[in-house]
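Our collaborator T.R. sent over the components below with a one-line note: 'Predict the complex.' Nothing else. No constraints on interfaces, no templates requested, no preferences about which chain binds where. So this is a plain run: every listed entity goes in together, and whatever single assembly comes back becomes the starting point for the next discussion.
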Amino acid sequence: MDIKRQESYAELIVKKGVNVQEGQKVVIRADIGSAPFVRIVAKAAYDAGASQVIMNWADEVITRMNYLRADAEVFKSIEPWRVQFFKDYDDAGACFINIISDDPDLLAGVEPERIKNAAKATGIGLAEHRRLTMGNHVRWTIAGVPSPAWAAKVFPNLPEAGAVEALWEKIIESSRVHQDALATWEAHDKVFKEKVEFLNKAAFKQLSFKNSLGTDITMELPQGHFWKGGSAPDTKGVDFFPNIPTEEVFTLPNCHTANGRVVASMPLTYNGVTIENFELTFKDGKVVAYKAEKNEAALASILELDEGAGMLGEIALVPYKSPISEMKLLFNCTLYDENASCHFALGKAYPMIHGYEDLPKDEALKRGVNESITHVDFMFGTADMEITGITAEGKEVVVFAGGNWA
Amino acid sequence: MDIKRQESYAELIVKKGVNVQEGQKVVIRADIGSAPFVRIVAKAAYDAGASQVIMNWADEVITRMNYLRADAEVFKSIEPWRVQFFKDYDDAGACFINIISDDPDLLAGVEPERIKNAAKATGIGLAEHRRLTMGNHVRWTIAGVPSPAWAAKVFPNLPEAGAVEALWEKIIESSRVHQDALATWEAHDKVFKEKVEFLNKAAFKQLSFKNSLGTDITMELPQGHFWKGGSAPDTKGVDFFPNIPTEEVFTLPNCHTANGRVVASMPLTYNGVTIENFELTFKDGKVVAYKAEKNEAALASILELDEGAGMLGEIALVPYKSPISEMKLLFNCTLYDENASCHFALGKAYPMIHGYEDLPKDEALKRGVNESITHVDFMFGTADMEITGITAEGKEVVVFAGGNWA
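Returned assembly:
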């Protein structure tokens, strides 16, 4: 990808993604293989006024080696310094950029117990940082950059350099960087605001989802919930885009109320394992049955993480007619794939109910805020998705018809 | 460099360098550019029984960017997580491998105040870890791997790939990996043991150094001092080699006793700045005058770090006839260059006096143990170096004559 476009993309990440403020620290997590692009992001951060760029490097080759060869005990806890790392920069008011380039098969063949233990230990250890990010106390963003392994998975028939370049093109296009990126994103954001305003005004009590694939599920929305999409303000009122790209408008369900069946419309890659053709059946919020044609054990490992992992934590609406959806490309990466389709998440909710900060924990849970240690998106949107809302007065409103906004 | 030799070198680092024990954690610090070799080291660590490999990556491009562009305040303190990082692994009984590949010009043009502040903050923040490493409570080793920038500095007339390969050859040769590395190092270690035994038996009260370059200095050795060279046991009796390569036999001077003048015989590269043709004059242990033909300010910044930085902390004897010396090559890297020549260090001493652990701090200082936060080696050995020892009984013994062991 030519440097100019990479620079535009980096500027988008820095200015719209985390919206770096003068004098702010910027923490960047990335794989060492992405260094050439990451350095462009670091430069953009300084150009935007950052006081310091802190790198949090990973090397997926050694990450995989560790998963395969380290002592099993290692995965059951998280070292104090890793907790302190996030505390230091949360306390300093830093923003967090996550540049992802993961090989979708990174953890293939790793003992699932290790992955589960690591996810659990990290979830517990970094719970406070997760609370701050999910509650928008800190600004953060996730964006992708191709790695050879990821590109090979998406374009298996191309040679390495060709696959990387092709994935770069798709990332740039889906991230709307092909034209003046900052202006494009401002226009993009306006559309989100219209949809969010409509949904917040409607203040639906219940939503139901139905399609020909077999999804037929209803759930209530918590009292005082609100929807978001596009940019969001942090708790100090500074706007940021947590995901680049983003096409979704989302809120949380009352996690105790889902009833029915949801059939995934796309595979889910979780810790290097691709779960295919799966479905979940819910009763009073809880998964009471599940099956998957491929890698059912990985699906089970998600559901078993904790109580909230077997309940929903997010409802996200994405029109079937959207740039990523129209690419008809499986990115094998949630950041992109979730923006191709309506999706739910299992696990922790973004606490999008008014007054959440002042609610006692048990009251929030009673209202249906899922407090799991995990958060895993999965897609269920289709071209014939029908979504119906029921207002507090019992009025039915068609939200999606034929896969798109009604 | 062919993979087989890289594997031998990695095995040497793991088995002789830190001597990884079954179930031990291994921390590796390296630049991301060295990843291909570092992964070989990580694999060797697991093959030797490591329970976990923990990476501490740096990227010199972003390190330099930070030095040039971050807020000046950033360098005045060290984040708590960096202290915690070493505490976690010191507490866990880990060993530490440092793979260096630094661009000698990395910090060229950086405001010296920033470098000085960072060195000071790191020295203070990591004082406990430094105490544990210098006191052999933990096993650690330093070894080198070429980077294009370093190789270009050493072989400025070769194209990039050729320079890297040439530097690899010199590293492999100077590290004695060209033959069966483990056996070669066992034989190498025996020679050290003979010299160490001679010096420890002699138990010199005073040493004097004289050559035609103008060096003419005497200093006392602390009561109860001992010499080391080659492998050293950690405090639990497990042998390790702190440096690969190593050609030196060393101890500490009584830091209050140096009198005379020492003229450097090789340039000193300190934080990216090369100090050339310099000399120091000592009175009662303290530098009372100094000059350098080039980069005198950098020399001054070392001396000003703290009180101990202007006093000696190490005496190291290296014969003029040794493999690295005979290469007649300036590596621009202390790890190699210090093994080409007799050298002193300014700053912190390895506390090599019997019973040090039980000595009160003020008593150790009185005996002459330098407790600075820094430790900087500089070379003064020449082909006509004469070193004379004086025993407690006042007997004169020639230690070096004509640059070599007498």
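Summary for T.R.: The mean pLDDT of chain B is 95.
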